[in-house]
Design goal:
CATH superfamily of the largest domain: 2-enoyl-CoA Hydratase, Chain A, domain 1
Number of strands: 9
CATH class of the largest domain: Alpha Beta
Shape: globular
Structural class: alpha/beta
Strand content: 15-25%
Number of domains: 2
Strand order of the largest sheet: 1-2-3-4-6-9
Distance between the termini: 40 Å
Number of helices: 12
Order of helices and strands: EEHEHHEEHEEHHHEHEHHHH
Amino acid sequence: MSGLIQSGYHSPHIAWLRFSNPGKRNALSLAMWKDLPGQLKTLSDNPDLRVLILSGEGDHFSSGGDISEFESVFGTWESSQDFSEAVDAAFEALVSFRTPTLAMIRGGAVGGGCGLALACDIRLADESSFFAITPAKLGIVYPFPEIARLFATVGLSAAKDILFSARILKAKEALRMGLVNQIFAPEDLETAMIDYAQTLAKRSPNSLTVTKKILSHLESGGFTPSQKIQDDITNAFLSGDFKTGYRAFLEKREAEFK
């Protein structure tokens, strides 16, 4: 098998997941796309998890789908459907992951690799990073949900530029467009990422989970809250997290959420 998805823990509350296919700039084989939802579910099922960090092994985040497999995966209508369904399931598993997800980006995040970064909640990159979405060079079309996510992130004009030109965006331009949240010197990126993840891990898990649900609802065009979301907002005032946070506020100290 070409490439692996690896995962583990920085601490009890912070997990990592890594794309490992460095000889191909961490391109994802079909087997890796199919493996990703199961790995994400295993991590999500851990009740102690509060933050997930995604990265690529070595010098690159991910170059997307493994083009060396395209002749076989797109050889028939059935195999094309199988590939598309595997990719869609992988993106959906990442987008719907219950805790905040952070992309730590070195080098290239290209094609589906850029889509994987966009499927994360926050993107921190180093100054060596570059981004491109290249279906226009290959004669294929980027999946609808990923185009919608790009549009929601950078706006219509920038999304058209990125998709129509298939050009490479370097880190500073990606930052100006809002494609990434922050950029750092290469030697500072990992420390900055862990510091940020630790900050999130100290916040109310319930607050972060419900807030992420609300933002996902808004991103999908739902500007009226569902009854479930409204109940989650109301129930937050009855939660142990609220009692912990409120008591810490009154005592002028940092809350320690369980």
